[in-house]
Design goal:
alpha/beta, Rossmann fold, six-stranded mixed β-sheet
Length: about 200
């Protein structure tokens, strides 16, 4: 696909995995490898009929079970690769706990009040670590679109990954929380000459 200026265009679809029990309980769940819950599986099957997820040339997941399971429902029998740089935020010792459980932990208070992104979760990562990692992961995805006409990549990852990337690409439009898609939904990104130039909702 080419635009009116003759520049090569391609599409990258970012889809959030289906619901898990951690989502239902509002737990911090990043690197913990949980599966979809039953209602999450049902929801993806339903969305598959409603959305008509686009077909793509390449399929990618973060490698975590919940992302793999989601893609296997959306596009059964397709071959896909994993990119571990696109895993969710590593919450370290805060994993599988909720805000109320952690409120009395000084380390947690220091982390949630950090405005510069330097504070790491104990045995986890900082926001700066996270942003650097997922940028590298996305650049690896972008390389799939280089020098190829009319190519598309379908990527199933995590809410934090998607909302952070969207805030980076379109920083003046919304904040990170407003970019968070519902489970099973996400964004179609249009890429031109190595740059993300526009988006639409999925």
């Amino acid at each position: 696909m080419w635009d009116r200026n003759g520049d090569k265009m391609s599409n990258i679809y970012l889809i959030r995995h289906g619901k898990t029990s951690a989502n239902e309980k509002s737990l911090y769940c990043g690197h913990n490898d949980v599966s979809l819950c039953e209602s999450g599986r049902t929801e993806i099957h339903t969305l598959k009929g409603e959305i008509s997820y686009p077909e793509a040339n390449f399929y990618v997941t973060s490698g975590l079970t919940r992302a793999n399971e989601t893609l296997e429902i959306i596009a059964p029998k397709i071959q896909y690769v994993t990119n571990i740089n696109l895993k969710e935020y590593n919450f370290g010792e805060f994993e599988m706990k909720n805000h109320d459980e952690l409120q009395g932990d000084e380390r947690y208070q220091k982390w949630i009040s950090d405005k510069d992104g330097d504070v790491r979760c104990p045995n986890g990562e900082s926001r700066k670590d996270f942003v650097k990692r997922i940028r590298e992961g996305f650049e690896q995805i972008m390389r799939l679109t280089e020098d190829v006409e009319d190519i598309s990549v379908f990527v199933v990852v995590h809410g934090g990954v998607i909302s952070t990337l969207m805030e980076i690409f379109f920083e003046d439009e919304k904040n990170i929380y407003e970019w968070l898609p519902r489970n099973g939904r996400g964004y179609k990104l249009t890429v031109s000459n190595g740059n993300v130039v526009e988006y639409s909702d999925i």
